[in-house]
Amino acid sequence: MVKINRKSLMAIGSVVVSFSLLLSACGGGTTSAPTNAEAPKSTGSAKQEAGKSAPGITDSEILIGNWATQSGPAAFYGAIAKGVDAYFQYVNEQGGVNGRKLKLVTYDEEYQPSRAVAISKKLIEEDKVFAIVGNDCTSCNKAALPQFKKEGIPVVGVSSGADVFVNPVIPNVYGLLTNYGVEARIFVNYAVDELKAKRIGIFYQNDDFGKSGYNAAIDELKKKGIQPVAEIPYNTTDVDFSSPALKMKEANPDVVLSFTITKSTAAYKKELHKVGVNVPFMVTSVGGADNNLFNLAGEAWKNVYSSSWTALVGSDDPKVKKYEEALGKYAKGVNPSGPALWGWAEAEVLVEGLRRAGDDLSRENFMKQLETLKDWNEGLAFNVTYTPENHYGTTSVIIIKDQDGKMVKASDVIKYEVGK
């Protein structure tokens, strides 16, 4: 993996974190990401393909694209790309996919939609990747969606659970991370039925991501005849959470639902702890399903619930053991819980689709083969399913809870039936 420091990047007017599996054996390499103003030269439509001549496919290689936030307030999610990369290296060491090695090209979009648009254009038109996997940031993916639709490039395992990517179905876009609305509905039911909550407060990020969970939670609460006692938004640029913590205290909830990213989750939970709000705190998986939060939030990280759409790090599951060993080998020092885990799981699904495609590596056949996955549990994700009418990936989670310095399983797998 090649890293370029921030000072050098500013000097050349672009930001990139680029690594490739094959280059790791021959000295590495760097690819410059476009700035907001740059427009990479068009080199033809990504739709022009036939069998092995599809973009990103050679007799020996399959080129896959990605962006992941490596800087700024959401840099935590950069580990998604490291998880993808680790799985690709693991597969390559086993001989690759149908005789071809996997190569990843990834850039830092800085959690900025404008950069994501420029990067997606570069990945498609200049790098000519076969598919894209694991892109983070709801707003970034939403901004790039018109480009994805226009070019028909397979986008697998969008690292966002927003409705816009799966409802209605977009033929070439495949979700995997738990849909935020599905997760919110599961949270509401668990809070009411298991935690016996009657006064629920909601804290949410004031953007597409946060509103997805917030809106679904409000809808599910209405079905139960419950009005939330607090509805408190925040912005991703906020650093002081003392005021929203006091507002939540004044509302006197018996459960808090939090639709927040990791850094904000930790900061808010610390402020709640300071003002004495220590009721059950249920936080979305992208903001809470990571053992590193015990370090980020310290003693405040107690009475916390979240969800996981994958098997848990530290469990006895052989698939988890394989992941932990491989991550330690190919991405030393990377925290195995949270984003790296998601990246590995997303890469597993992409590779399974490639394997099923066999020698016909057209994008059309690849997507056709993804839609043969039904309750697929050979990877870390639960019950992966795609059909022409359903691209959610998984709507199955386990509830997890803090215990002795780590998040542990607190429920069996809960499968939410969309549309019922």
Describe the structure concisely for a colleague.
With 420 residues, the protein is of the alpha/beta class. Helix content is 36%, strand content 16%.
> Do you know the CATH topology of the largest domain?
Rossmann fold
Compute the average pLDDT: 89
Give the number of domains: 2
CATH superfamily of the largest domain: Response regulator
CATH top-level class of the largest domain: Alpha Beta
Q: Could you spell the SSE succession in H and E letters? A: HEHEHEHEEHEHEHEHEHHEHHHEEEEE
Largest sheet: 8 strands, mixed
Gyration radius, in Å: 21 Å
Number of strands: 15
Structural class by sheet pairing and helices? alpha/beta
Named CATH architecture of the largest domain: 3-Layer(aba) Sandwich
InterPro entries: Leu-bd (IPR028081), Peripla_BP_I (IPR028082)
Family: Belongs to the leucine-binding protein family.
Protein name: Branched-chain amino acid ABC transporter substrate-binding protein
Signal peptide: 1-25
Write up this protein.
By secondary structure, the protein is an alpha/beta fold. It has two domains: 6-177 and 318-388, 3-Layer(aba) Sandwich (Rossmann fold), CATH 3.40.50.2300; 180-308 and 398-415, Rossmann fold, CATH 3.40.50. The chain is built from 13 helices and 15 strands. The chain has helices spanning 6-12, 79-93, 113-127, 138-151, 180-193, 208-223, 242-251, 262-274, 285-288, 293-297, 318-330, 339-357, 363-370, and strands at residues 61-67, 101-107, 131-133, 155-158, 173-175, 200-205, 230-234, 255-259, 281-283, 304-308, 385-387, 390-393, 396-403, 406-409, 414-415. Strands 6, 7, 8, 9, 10, 13, 14 and 15 form an eight-stranded mixed sheet that branches. Strands 2-1-3-4-5 form a five-stranded parallel sheet, with helices on both faces. Helix 3 (113-127) runs parallel beside helix 4 (138-151) and helix 5 (180-193) packs across helix 6 (208-223). The chain starts with 5 loop residues before the first helix and ends in a 5-residue tail after the last strand. The model is unreliable at 1-52 (pLDDT under 50).
